[in-house]
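thought: user wants a sequence for this fold. calling inverse folding tool.
action: design(structure=
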């Protein structure tokens, strides 16, 4: 799951103004921001193993602090506390934390068994990555369905929503069909950070247009 992780952020933002869309986009990929940082630091590990699944060559063989259920709950609670401290709004904190936790639940659908409860075996994953005819349309449907809900409810400037949609689609297509690096390098982390950062900044930019878009509809 890649762009599908942002679907819960868009769905929550469609129904509530706070926390902001940029913060929710960070929440949706927070455990992957942490994972790629930990890979860079040598704390968690992955490798390229072509054929490990039909969709992705990523062999995520060691990620106890980010992609265990307990780890995801800890990141969720931490982010919820930060949002609550900044906004002084408990509901916003709970919603932001729920978006963080949604990452693990969505990964459970698509990953081959590499997710854990507490960092060690057994490992879990329903492996929809092995069924691209199901996983690919599902990921596109939940992402762009949530974007449609957001646009319908919040009425941002449509040009900005289109930019976000095209950017997410382009990155997802590159993720599915682009060239595969032969091995994991520091560049793997940097590329992930650039992709997550571009989408998050674009989502924030779209969210900033909500008031202006509402006046023009």
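)
observation: tool returned 217 residues.
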């Amino acid at each position: 799951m890649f762009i599908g992780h942002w679907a819960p952020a868009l769905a929550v933002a469609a129904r509530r103004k706070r926390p902001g869309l940029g913060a929710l986009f960070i929440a949706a990929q927070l455990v992957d921001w942490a994972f790629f940082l930990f890979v860079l630091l040598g704390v968690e590990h992955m490798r390229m193993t072509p054929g490990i699944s039909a969709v992705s060559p990523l062999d995520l063989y060691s990620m106890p602090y980010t992609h265990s259920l307990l780890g995801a709950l800890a990141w969720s609670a931490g982010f919820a506390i930060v949002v609550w401290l900044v906004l002084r709004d408990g509901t916003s904190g709970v919603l932001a934390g729920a978006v963080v936790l949604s990452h693990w639940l969505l990964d459970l659908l698509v990953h081959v068994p590499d997710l854990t409860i507490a960092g060690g075996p057994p490992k879990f994953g329903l492996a929809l990555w092995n069924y691209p005819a199901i996983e690919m349309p599902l990921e596109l449907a939940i992402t762009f369905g949530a974007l449609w809900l957001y646009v319908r409810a919040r009425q941002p400037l449509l040009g900005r929503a289109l930019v976000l949609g095209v950017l997410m689609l382009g990155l997802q297509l590159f993720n599915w069909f682009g060239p595969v690096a032969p091995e994991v390098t520091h560049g793997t982390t940097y590329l992930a950070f650039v992709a997550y950062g571009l989408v998050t900044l674009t989502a924030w930019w779209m969210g900033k247009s909500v008031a202006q878009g509402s006046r023009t509809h």
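thought: summarizing for user.
answer: Here is the designed sequence. The beta strands are 45-48, 58-62.
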